[in-house]
Amino acid sequence: QVQLVETGGGLVQAGGSLRLSCVASGNMYSFTNRGWYRQAPGKQRELVASLPSGGRTNYADSVKGRFTITRDGPRSTWILQMNNLKLEDTAVYYCNAAYGSNDYWGKGTLVTVSS
Q: CA 41 to CA 28: how far, in whole Å?
């Protein structure tokens, strides 16, 4: 079993920055993909950024140039640096890891961007 825990959410003014962290624990695997998703009120969960093992990072068009996904040293930790936040970035952000056909999810962390 794999557990993912997100930290770093909170309230920030538009134009500000936040740094989300995801720490994985449990039966660790060499994940084939690591990523961040978000779900705004009344909307479907959407991909924000992904970091495939051995591949290139991918970003939603809405966050390109503002968000950066990276690994923080150990394979079990990855970061979403969010800069120049906009009101429409308000959502619950979820950490995701994939191994084969298995998807693992954190419980989410709330990011609220105010004007």
A: 32
Angstrom CA distances, 19 to 12, 49, 99, 102, 108, stand at: 11, 14, 25, 26, 14
Q: How far apart are CA 62 and CA 33, in angstroms?
A: 21
Which position has the token pair 């959410």?
A: 9
**Alpha-carbon span 16 to 2, nearest angstrom:** 32
Q: Is residue 73 over pLDDT 80?
A: no
Give whole-number Cα distances, 112 to 3, 28, 40, 51, in Å: 24, 31, 10, 24
The identity of residue 16, as a single letter, is G
Could you tell me which residues are beta bridge partners of residue 10? Answer: 111
Rounded distance between C-alpha atoms, residue 15 and residue 85, angstroms: 5
Could you tell me the pLDDT band of residue 74, with boundaries at 50, 70 and 90?
A: low
Q: Give me the pLDDT at residue 49, please.
A: 98
